[in-house]
Amino acid sequence: MKTLKDLGDLKGKRVLVRADFNVPLDGTTITDDGRIKAALPTIKTLREEGAKVILMAHLGRPKGKVVPELSLAPVAARLGELLGIEVPLAKDTYGEDAQAKVAAMNDGDVVLLENVRFNPEETSKDPAVRAPYAKKIAALGEVFVSDGFGVVHRAQGSNYDVAADLPAAAGLLVEKEVKALSKATENPERPFTVVLGGSKVSDKLGVIENLLDKANRLVIGGGMVFTFLKAKGYEVGTSLLEEDQLDKVKGYIETAEKNGVELVLPTDIVVNAGFPAGDTPVAPEVVAADAIPADKMGLDIGPESQKLFHDKIVDSKTVVWNGPMGVFEIPEFAAGTKAVAQGLVDATAAGAFTIVGGGDSASAVRNLGFPEDGFSHISTGGGASLEFLEGKELPGLKVLE
Length: 401
Prior knowledge:
Blueprint: E1 14-18, E2 25-26, E3 29-30, H1 34-48, E4 52-56, H2 73-83, H3 96-103, E5 110-112, H4 127-138, E6 143-146, H5 157-165, E7 168-170, H6 172-186, E8 192-196, H7 205-211, E9 217-220, H8 225-231, H9 246-259, E10 262-264, E11 268-272, E12 285-288, E13 297-301, H10 303-314, E14 318-322, H11 335-349, E15 353-356, H12 359-367, E16 377-378, H13 382-389, H14 395-398
Parallel strand pairs: 1-4, 1-6, 4-5, 6-7, 8-9, 8-14, 9-10, 14-15, 15-16
Antiparallel strand pairs: 2-3, 11-12, 11-13
GO molecular function, one term: ATP binding
Binding site for ATP: 204, 298, 329, 358-361
Pathway: Carbohydrate degradation; glycolysis; pyruvate from D-glyceraldehyde 3-phosphate: step 2/5
């Protein structure tokens, strides 16, 4: 994979950078600017080298239409604050305004192009549709830097086709992500523990399959755990359950046993009358994992499991965590996710290499107030880090080779 060093002298050059600024918004307020901050090292390095930095990114899913609520204006404003300069936002991605703003740039200036997904061609599955569109974007720059790790698992116009049109390299963020995830999957220090949560087991099938012969220990929580508990013959009440995955999960339990992989499931669960919304009050109670009442819904791992999961994590040299343990947005069901995050922090302090695998886990550690430097690496790409852990070839990385 080519990196910034391979691009040579960038002074005065127009450098197109694909970043990942897909941040959560409350109206026009950014509620978590982690992804913007993650792009700063690459932007600052390019500015120091005297490049003209032309940033492009997407926000939300406008489905190829101009959706004013999904404009990158709040991102341009926040980026300007973080860099201490004005970051103009072009009104389009490659049209007249983008061309005019790029033409007016001086060395070290930064311009942000409007949401690439306002263009239907950006996410087209047909390369013949994407290619001419990508050429229009490529015409704005002289070299391309891929720094949006959150999109490298997709072949899209602004991260894949543009890379084929210009001299291309990975930015510092993508380079850092690949190094960290490779360290965990290629030759991990052992014991190697993988902690998986989140709502659906079907989202994590590939990861489980790929890691059943690599990990020493698989720790399972979140909504996906109820399919495992059901596969063991337990009652799971009204908890989230994927009936169609039961046979697969039974197979995983057998494979884990055969491969000598320790499969850690919760021993107790925090249940509620249902998902707390509308008329359903928050009235948590703790029950044994094999004794969930038929009319109750599991929403977090219980106190005994919190200690168990924490201790298993601390007893590891490499830890990868993807997916919360419960409905962490509601304080009464956040303790499981906190216990896992604390386990990673304690393991890191004891010298382990720890990765928080993007998506919900990354926003959970930030929202629950954990310091980012308490972990070895917090990934910026949920889907991308999952596919990397699955051992899949990611098109956005392949094109940089």
